[in-house]
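Usage

Read records sequentially. Each one opens with the input sequence:
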Amino acid sequence: MSGASSTAERGDSTQFEGDGPVVSVIIPVRNGAAHLDEALDSMVGQTLRDIEVVVVDDGSVDSTPDILARWVDRDARVRALRQGPGGIVRALERGRAHARGEFIARMDADDISEPSRLQAQVDLLRRRPELSGCGCGVRYFPDEIVRDGARRYERWINHLVEPGDIDAGMFVECPLPHPTFFFRAEALDVVGGYRETAGPEDYELILRMWSQGHRFGKVPDVLLRWREGDERLSRTDARYSPEAFLATKVRYLHRTLLRPTGPSDSGLRAVVIWGAGPVGKAFSRALQDVGVEVVAFVDLDPRKIGQQIHGAPVLETPAGLTLGSSDAGGRAVGSGQTRAPPPLHLAAVGQEGARRRITRLLSEAGKRPLRDFIAVA
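and closes with the structure output:
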């Protein structure tokens, strides 16, 4: 592509054991001089040697280009591409276009991968052919600036290891940390890679792949140190705002779990929202905006029972459990040849413990995860 530096071409002469590297690691960077050496040290120090590290400099004006030039001279596996400021999606797709590996890994220019990370992820995908990609455990650092909320998120995301766990958390948050992404290159090719949207590019990619039948796992070991800091893009860009995340979740709920569940079902599924607090209300508004009916809210607070929220009644738990069943079906539509599909129950609360209690109640009532209910946040 135009704009690639001459130093990138020097990396092209690397000799690999096969036709290309086992893993291509893509690192986008803009003005990352402060931590880039640490990140690249952790990559070239991987126990898996048959790799290439494709760094895409997205218009840096600090010493990033000089650091990259030194690395390209030092290790032929490091390749540097230059472009004007185009944003993270353009940088990632530029790197992917130049990647030659069987697998594509992600890494940020300020994080640190443990030496065994890439080998462990290769081993997992080779052992589990049904998986299109995986992540690994993470640990935020430096400890002195990591807040309690970040540690709670770290614990939550690290416990999502098996595909079923990841599926269950799919609409709570992105269940794989972006800098740990590790995919079969062919799977990324099939879905078209990253896309520019008004929301988070990493989460949108995972949801799009999941909606097309791809499944993910995770190496449970903590193999990436994830740098915390107020300057992170996720803290400063509107694409990572709560509103953008909500819109992304609703778009993919609309495309997947809210579709009819049976051959005789007609129309979108309605929803029952468990939780009449801020999370439930936000999902109610967003879903109603795209034409989804909210049948009812369910809440434990006796002060809310009997109220109306966005036109839907707030019910007690026993009444909520009787609403809809994928076995019993929904109400008849028109001549009776079709029926409204059973509603989808959303465990829509912010606290993980409360979501677990709701999903346990729904399971005990005979409802099935991903078919009858899903946790959201």
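Summary fields computed downstream for this record:
- Residues 1-110 form a domain with the Spore Coat Polysaccharide Biosynthesis Protein SpsA; Chain A fold (CATH 3.90.550.10).
- The chain has three domains: 1-110, 112-256, 257-376.
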